[in-house]
Amino acid sequence: MAAFLDEATWGRPSALANCPQCDGVFLLPESGETAVPCPFCGQANLTLLGAESVPPQAENPPELLVPFSANAAQLPQTLARFAQSTRFAPADLTPQNLHGRLRPLFLPMWLIDADAQAQWQAEAGFDYQVVSHREQFHNGQWRTQKIEETKIRWEPRLGTLQRRYENETAPALEQHAQLEQTLGKFRRQEAVAYQPQALGKAIVRLPNRPTADAWPEAQEAIKSRAAEECRQAAAADHIRQFRWSVQFAGQNWTQLLLPLYTTYYRDDEGAVRRVFIHGQTGSLRGERRASMKKARRWALGIAVIAAVLFVLSLVLAAAGYFQPDVLLPALITFVLALGVGITAVLPLLLAWLMNRQQKSLPIT
Amino acid sequence: MTAFPPPDFVRTSSAVPGIDVYMPRPPAETHQAVVDFHCPQCDGVTAYSAENGGLTCTFCGYYEPPRQEVVGKGAAAFEFTVETMDRAAQGWGVERKELVCERCAARLTLSTDSLTTTCPFCGSNQVIQAKAPQDVLRPRFLVPFSVTADTCREKTAVWLTNSWMLPSDLKRLARTAEFAPIYIPYWTFDATTQADWRAEVAHTRQKRVFRSGRWETETVTEWRWESGRAGVDFDDLLVDGSQHLSQLLLHKVQKYDLRALVPYDASFLAGMQAQAYEVGLEEAWENGRQTMRERTKKACQAQATSQRIRNFSMNLSFADENWRYILLPLYLATYRYNGQPYQVMINGQTAVIAGQRPVAWKKVLLAVGGMLAPALILGLVAFLLLYLAVGEGYGGLAAIAAVVAFVIGLVVAIVTVSHAAGMDNI
Ligand SMILES: [Zn+2]
Ligand SMILES: [Zn+2]
Ligand SMILES: [Zn+2]
Known about the structure:
The structure holds 2 protein chains of 2 kinds. By secondary structure, chain A is α+β, with helices and mostly antiparallel strands. Chain A has 9 helices and 11 strands. Among the domains of chain A are: about 180 residues, no CATH class; about 70 residues. In chain A, strands 1, 2, 3, 4, 5, 6, 7, 8, 9, 10 and 11 form an 11-stranded mixed sheet that branches. In chain A, strand 9 and strand 10 form a beta hairpin. The longest helix of chain A is centred in the C-terminal third of the chain and has 29 residues. By secondary structure, chain B is an alpha+beta fold. Chain B has 3 domains: about 260 residues, no CATH class; about 70 residues, no CATH class; about 60 residues. Helix content of chain B is about 25%, strand content about 35%. In chain B, strands 7, 12, 13, 14, 15, 16, 17, 18 and 19 form a 9-stranded mixed sheet that branches. In chain B, strands 3-11-10 form a 3-stranded antiparallel sheet, with no helix packed on it. In chain B, a hairpin with a 2-residue loop joins strand 13 and strand 14. The longest helix of chain B has about 35 residues. Chain B is flat. The relative contact order of chain B is 0.15. The chains are: A alpha+beta, B alpha+beta. Chains A and B meet through strand 5, strand 6 and helix 6 of A and strand 2, helix 1, helix 5 and strand 17 of B. Strand 5 of chain A pairs antiparallel with strand 17 of chain B.
């Protein structure tokens, strides 16, 4: 393999590859593997890149990493459940295939450190207790009950702020919001300092979002952290309407890596269907695809039964010409044939409906 | 954000390094224990004048217009915070019993509940602004005097002569009575009540029954459960904070128009008497709540489809409760008649008068006699006619007329006597 990255940044020799379909750039572990399907979109195999095309994002070192913490022993069961609960599953969708293709993948997030210097103003809320009463009139007597209620008194506060904010996060992938919506949030507080050996055999996805795009979001995140700090500073119970005029300096961009398992299967048409497992919660999200081929086989089987029944009813009817006693069984067999014939459509309909309802994962 | 920090903000403590916190400057502590009023022109004593609503000097005619704007019903009200209730429960303390006159250095002893004094040695008017247990528990608003002592005198003169039951020599007493202007402490309460009620309500209907051989009409009462929800909005319910005054008289005159409220300023009290509250916030609020819950109960009962109810029960909750501590103007006068003291109160804003009046009981007895006389005479006539048996028809008629006249006379007499009793017995 060519184009091994400098170990200085990642501490692990890695090959750089990109996906011609989704433009994702990945760091592959050093292995003799060829034809690695894109773990992200699954639509194409990754192509190795030359050293001259190392994107600038690859130079931002990882600083923190959220380790895989989903129960690994549960993974086969999770995959088997998915495979078995898919009706008319394509032939390729087997627990064995899913498990064999399972790959750990790390997704990036930006980590920003910055010095903030600001003038701020806000409304600080202070809790206070008021006394209220309830009265009950019963059997000619009043009974008074005293109750205390908590209210908030809002007062203006303003001031200056000079603080360094470290490791504020901002999405490094365009698809980040959709990803977390689909898979569930990642518990970033479980992040540990990055160690190259923690990567193991995992593929690492590189950011596709420039720091300039992520900076406004990072500022918002820093702002809400600052608002919380100003609340503490003012010894208030609540804060609202926080505004500041701020100047940032000394920005430093690093990466946080989030754990994800990916695997896939191929549908009837040979297209790759992706299955993701959250690296912390172990919850699975995958595209379900029914095999129309399989459904058609079922439909055909049922249709054959119907045809046999129909022929039988004809035979009985013919016999009924001589022996009127068998006319009734003939009729019953005919109705049965009709009923079974109609159900022959069901497998096709169910499979079609399932494929129609199933949206593909919103990650391309 | 230019000019940091803004001029009306001061720095306060911060719990986080690197963050400075500024808060609005707290209102300056302008607490002045005693305010002394004297004229800047002649150094004479100045006092508040109900005539023009400012400070005037009785010696040189110097006039200082009032300082405050009318805030009326918009005057700030306070919530029943746990903190306030706790502080209010501590009361005034006993610290301000002795005062040194700022003008002549005489030592004066005061009762703990008066807010003003006039030095008996130099005649200067002083307003004592004692430290309240909490700032909100100082009087914050008041209705200034707008009725003058002269008006009071005229009103009293009319009032002392407007009934035939009064002794005819009362009028001259009006001239001798001394009207002392005094600010009475009041609590005002706002609240909204909301109550769910349930009761058995009587419904009657007529029923025909066949009993002992004939049809009779019988009234049947049926009790049916009813329920509902009612609420009352209370706006500035007044509860007085003084213990020394006749509650009966006070209730007759205490219809004040709170749209005239002004923020408290010592100059409104110059030369007047003023009392601090003796009935504390908690106790006054309990009185206020009792009034509110009774009125809410009436509102609930009024919703029942019939007014005959039993097993009435209700659950009431208060909301948006707040309070104010204010001073309201009142004139007090005591006059003596036949060695007996009689009290008069006049509302210092509306001039409504209430008080005790000596009743000329001889006049009243004479009148009662006059009321019963027709019955007596008619009775006598009837007796004579019947006894002598001349024209029996007229005798019977006269007897009936006598009974009617007696009943009417008796009713009028009872009303008159009770009215007279109400006049002097308070
Ligand atoms: Zn791809
Ligand atoms: Zn003067
Ligand atoms: Zn003096």
